[in-house]
Amino acid sequence: MAMTSEEMSNDPVAVETLPPTLRLRNISKVFGATKALDNVSLDVLPGEVHGLLGTNGSGKSTLIKVLAGYHSPEPGGTLEFNSDNVKLPLRPEDFRRLGMSFVHQDLGLVPSLTVLENLRIAEIALAKGGLINWKHEKAAAKTILERYDVNIEIWRRVDELSAVNRALLAIVRAFEDVRRRSEETGKPGLVLLDEPTPFLPRESVNQLFDLVRRIAEQGSSAIFISHDIDEVMEFTDKVTVLRDGRVSGQAETKTATHDDMVELIIGRRLEKTTTTKTASTAKRTVLAKFSDISSKTVKARPFEIGKGEIIGMTGLIGSGYEQLPYLMFGAQRADAGTVQIEGQSPIVLSGLTPKAALEHQFALLPGDRLEKSGVGSISIFENMLLPGITDYSARGFLNNAAMKKEARRLGAQFEVRPNNPEAPLGSLSGGNAQKVLIAKWMKRNPKLLLLDEPTQGVDVGTRDNIFKALRAAAQQGMSIVCASSDAEQLEAVCDRVLIFARGRIIDELTGARLTKDEIMQACYGSLSKLTETDRSQEVIES
Ligand SMILES: Nc1ncnc2c1ncn2[C@@H]1O[C@H](COP(=O)(O)OP(=O)(O)OP(=O)(O)O)[C@@H](O)[C@H]1O
């Protein structure tokens, strides 16, 4: 059963006899006017997989950064590790000494180095006189991978590995660091996993979870951060929920429900989203027809997008769907194919540039937001309104006050927290920055909005609001492409979903078939649907 902070005692875990591996009491962190952490207390027991949930900006990453020694907490808090009082603030390397290790979302691997070098990076860097005993390093790397029953070729460069193998490697490395430290100290360690699973297909996520579970059975613990409530419920023993920097509640996972979790996260129950989906394409006016888009890894048959239609694109990772928004916008050069907009002469996609796409009123929200779509160092209002800045200038002067007012209105609509248009975009949490960038493109009211994983990293309440905003825009005539691995999102928001396998469109789901389960089934069953001809022309190496 979930408990709110009022129902909890000061001592959150009193049921187990073993002392907690990590015990935090009254940890606070202030950034200017923002209380990112407000007296957070939390225990993680040995062998426990502990979920950390919360809305965007609720303080999850700040807590991890305090533990990594990156942020100094405010005075007054305490940290115990295996019952030892640890002096705060932690210094950057303290976590290693204590037996903690981190897997951040970017995984922290060096892509140009091999698996072996990534696993043994510390030993290789410290090799006496620069002389590396490769025979010894090879045997050590193999032993580590065998220990965790992970089968990855040690001489492969990390940038040649599949997404799941990269994630597995990062987790194995983190657990191995902790295991070795535990051997020295005789005490359990702690691995902190900060959203390591986005974009991974279900079976790969299961593989990662099995690995973490096996390691936890040996006594070390894990903290697991994710916005995917079902994933957290399935995978963890206990959950702590943060809201506005405070612990809003804790729950034993096996007795809590999904709705309990939603309520602890956003402070209210979610109404069922009732989305009005428009009629099928046959009855729509066509906005654009994309014919034979082809690249090194994609060979898509012709498809049309109706005015006011939301089309989902999905498949297993690497099936090609994730490249479609970029190919359709000219952000990635197509080898062949055309787009015909509103019945005009076809435009050759190999010559389409993002500038030309913008002139045709296309917009693209890339998956890699801050890097490709926003400028972290400039203000939120400038980021939001930059594409239409001329609307706010007269006789050479910019009307800053009007821009800020509009940005504040959009911020409230998309629940950007804190809603301060003057703050730099880079000061927002990842999910809040994503809300700003969605608002930016919705505001431009493009004819065709191309989205790559639009709600990745966005919390459950705002996700619902984004769905509603997308549906409302579609009803006003905006056409939207949503490339996503999130079947639940596709079911909630799309009129039609195209399923990709090995670069081809192999199925199309509409009407009663457009459900989360059918989407997942279509993705997993997708390869068997490739015809013999498709197989002989496969465009992606298996
Ligand atoms: N370096 C910083 N300077 C100013 N404010 C910051 C800084 N880092 C975080 N914040 C603020 O602290 C609050 C907590 O942010 P944090 O990144 O911890 O949230 P989060 O729960 O990890 O969010 P998300 O789920 O979106 O990643 C937010 O309001 C954020 O804007």
Task: For this entry, give a set of tags.
542 residues; alpha/beta; Rossmann fold; 3 domains; seven-stranded mixed sheet; six-stranded mixed sheet; 20 helices; disordered C terminus; binds adenosine-5'-triphosphate; ATP-binding; transport; ABC_carbohydrate_import_ATPase; sugar transport; ABC_transporter-like_CS
Shape: globular
CATH class of the largest domain: Alpha Beta
Strand share of the residues?
A: 15-25%
Structural class: alpha/beta
Distance between the termini: 45 Å
**CATH level-two architecture of the largest domain:** 3-Layer(aba) Sandwich
How many structural domains? 3
Low-confidence stretches: 8-16, 535-542
Question: What's the CATH H-level homologous superfamily of the largest domain?
Answer: P-loop containing nucleotide triphosphate hydrolases
Q: Strand arrangement, largest sheet?
A: 1-11-10-4-9-8-7
Bound molecules: adenosine-5'-triphosphate
Largest sheet: 7 strands, mixed
Query: How many H/I helices?
Result: 20
Return the average pLDDT rounded to an integer. 86
Describe the structure.
The chain is an alpha/beta fold. It has 3 domains: 2-109 and 185-266, P-loop containing nucleotide triphosphate hydrolases (Rossmann fold), CATH 3.40.50; 273-361 and 446-542, P-loop containing nucleotide triphosphate hydrolases (Rossmann fold, 3-Layer(aba) Sandwich), CATH 3.40.50; 372-445, no CATH class. 34% of the residues lie in helices and 23% in strands. The protein contains 20 helices and 23 strands. The strands form 5 sheets. The protein has a 7-stranded mixed β-sheet, sandwiched between helices. It has a 6-stranded mixed β-sheet with strand order 17-20-21-14-22-23. It has a 4-stranded antiparallel β-sheet with strand order 3-2-5-6, with no helix packed on it. Helix 17 crosses helix 18. The model is unreliable at 8-16 and 535-542 (pLDDT under 50). This is Monosaccharide ABC transporter ATP-binding protein, CUT2 family. Keywords: ATP-binding, Nucleotide-binding, Repeat, Sugar transport, Transport. One of its GO terms (molecular function) is ATP hydrolysis activity.
